[in-house]
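In practice, a research group might receive sequence data for several interacting partners and want a quick structural hypothesis before committing to experiments. The following worked case mirrors that situation: the sequences arrive first, and a predicted assembly follows.
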Amino acid sequence: MTTTAPEQVEAPQKGFAGESIPRKEDRRLVQGQGVFFDDVKRHGMGYVHFVRSPYAHAGIVSIDVSAAEAVEGVYGTLIGEEVAALTDPFFEMSTPPGNEIRDYALAVGKVRFAGEPVAAVVAETRELARDAAELVEVEYEPLEPVVDAVAALEPGAPVLHEEAGTNVVWSGTFEWGDYDEALAEADRIVRIDRLYFHRFSSTPLECAGALVEYDRGTEQWTLHCNHQMPGIGIVWMAPALRVGTDKLRIVTQDIGGGFGNKITLHPYFVALCLLARKLHRPVQWTEWRTDQHTANTHGNERTFLDVEVPVRSDGTMLGFKVKAVDDAGAFPRYEPLGCIIWAQVTPGCYRWRHVRVDFTQACTNKSPTAPNRGYSRMQQLWFTERVIDVVASELGLDPVEVRKRNYIRADEMPYETPNGCVYDSGDYARCLDIALDLVGYDSLEERRRDAESRGKLLGLGIGSTLDSGTNNFGQSQLLNPELQFSGNNEVATVRLDIFGEIVVTLGTTPQGQSHETVASQVVADLLGVTPNDVHVRAGHDSYWNSHAGFSGTYASQFAVTGLEAVRGATLALADQIRRLAAIILGAGGPDDIVLEESMAKRRDMPEAALPFMACGAIINVNNAGLPPELDDVTLNCRYVYRPPFEVPDIERKFGNLTLTYATQIHACVVEVDPETGVYEIVDYAAVDDCGTRIHPQIVEGQVHGATAHALGAAMFETFPYDENGMLLASNFYDYHVPHALDMPPLKTGFIESPSPFSSLGTKGMGEGGGAGIHAVCAALQDALRPVGSPIVTESHNPYHRVWELIRDPAASRAGIEVSGA
Amino acid sequence: MEPVTSMRVTVTVNGESHEREVAARRLLVHFLRDDLDLTGTHVGCDTGNCGACTVLVNGAAVKSCMLLAVQAHGASIETVESLAPANGGLHPLQQAFSDRHALQCGYCTPGMLMSAKHLLDHNPEPTENEIRRAIQGNICRCTGYVNIVEAIAAAAKGEVSA
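A structural hypothesis for the assembly, expressed as tokens:
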């Protein structure tokens, strides 16, 4: 075990932490006074419109922008040739030959997906920019596209990136435990030839974009934008632009949802930087909805082939073997990290000890993939849940019992997985019991009969999910030992100012996660003030010096990384206040001072009190004659939190990849119309365990939202492509997301298993909703038992697919085989 | 004769009269956001699906990305900026949204509030189904609508914090 626990876990504090206080963010947002990037304007700014490829795969013969540039009101253009001359390709993380891929801000030489930007036009209005973009003449030479990752790996498949000479981005094997021994021990072996996790995206309501200014005197760009991972964003952008990271100032305030989809905006932002410098004016780009769907980022699509599961007759799972093929789309923009991030949850919630995984990621002529709520773990967890339900079905066992038999137990925590991850705490079986209670499990058979009497088929399904939070970026070295990333960090500053103001800055970039509120609760409790006394600056600004290399809001980590940084800075400030007050009040030492009611008081004589206002004034504007032992007291404290990680063992691909593991156990009850395949979710429960909750209402809100994403993905949301590589769901007509009438009533429950690895007992959360996809699949499979027991092999199950399962259950079972050992 | 490509438009927005020369193709939402600097009204989809741009035009809930500014000539428009009373408080719907955590990122909220206001203006005691029906043209990607529906019901019943 490479993770060490903090020396002492503090008991849950009595104070504001744990209370659902009013959100600080709300007052401005409900009045339309939030500042989203598209609200920022500058004098003389030009509007950017990207000219995009109509082909999925084509050579670029020529680009002629002269007609566009001749239009009055057009300020200028940018094409791929200029980009290739002025920038270097983005840093690639894979090993050879995957790292030979050349990815630029605009297409250079050829296009590799429909919607890829090939040129940009800037004009005085957004309408004119769009019109002028129509005048850009691009001559293409169409090439054969490949739109399926498995097909892309076949010999003779069209190759996207000639420099790499192959469509393989990354490939490798993972072997943990002794899989052959598990085969030998097994009573039965269940084989599944193919499971498929589909492509979709969280599609935040606010599209991507930025207003970019270039200061010619300082050669610095300022980006008012909605990037959700500025720390790493700058690491991609600065070398490409051939400048130091200090030349890129990233500013965010309110962000209209992110869900991971705003992590890989660097190609667009580099194009904007070049335009702002070239045209001597601020440039503004707001992505169109169609462009977000066709060309921003999609979640990873994954095909699981040749699955083999050795089990005992009683349903005890011994191990699994699988060949996973992941589809990265046209460019590996955050990839190949998805080729390792799944391993944070290798065995899901279960005691599988023997694992053999062959993992390959391929490029296809589709939109690039990038993190999407539950990134890469959701696919793996769906796989483990499907395996559990298929095995239960084929062995004639109860899926509830199989889960309880194989779940990692509360008394085994902290639990080391076969690949060295340490599940910190949790009680999956208890969460499952609560979820089952909430959906009336005891009366399930009665409800089945009732549904049957109405001509419907009722089914129950469970989705068990872990939300691994606080990445150890050292896992990247398991993909490529040359990479120089490891650990993680986040920053906060807390300051006591002249009039006693307590001002907090965060390195994070919240998109609805309520960081201002939650941070204020933690600060208030440590300083003896109220959250109203704590001013948390909205948004992120790299000028504030309150950011670090991994700053941002992603991968379920604020409740650990963000709050540990806030806590560290606040404790440092509290210590300085006590030292100052001890001297002013003539106390024996800092330990004789307590902080309460916005004052520093002598413990032995509470009437001797120094208001924080006085502390702030003394240090900031009235500091003559202070003794030298206060020389280091600034009342402006910065703290960088670094989780206690080691670099994983590269040979064994073994080590702790994330610090905390929140649990989500969902139970779903569906009623299916066997005549049509139309189904309805008639009961639904989500039980969450994210350790100690600082703000229960916010936690529950995340559970609701993540569940809605999962149900949307399970029932409605998919990004299908035709054989020519054309996306068939490029707006909210064709890409249906849940509306208010689509959502079933949600019941929620919780337990709290404090994490031993965070000072506050918290765990990152917010991405656990993938459980909904697993639960719907399981519920459908359960409901359809009376009509030939079809097996649900795909993650996306719209009504017509359910109808296909009913019509031809044998087809779905063709790839399932059970043998004795 | 040169085709006419712009028009003098007079509208009343949040009680204040505005007169502007407006390009004929300009969408009402861009007129509100860019010309009048009322940036509380948001754009989420460009196709009339998401409802982030919902405003009231002569009392009717309208997606302002689906209307040209020139079509609003002579109309009275209410945006999210009109909801809060001048005394610094909040409209009951705004307060209810905050009380019930009916917003996370806040991007859909202005449109959601205007649809909810339209509902309560016409149906002061809606059922849950009527609430869901009234906001089915407004997409929220954060909340799963659970708390939004509760907030609108609470506002209708006057169950909001002071």
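Before designing any experiment, note the following. The CA atoms of residues 98 and 131 of chain B lie 18 Å apart. The longest strand of chain B covers residues 6-13.
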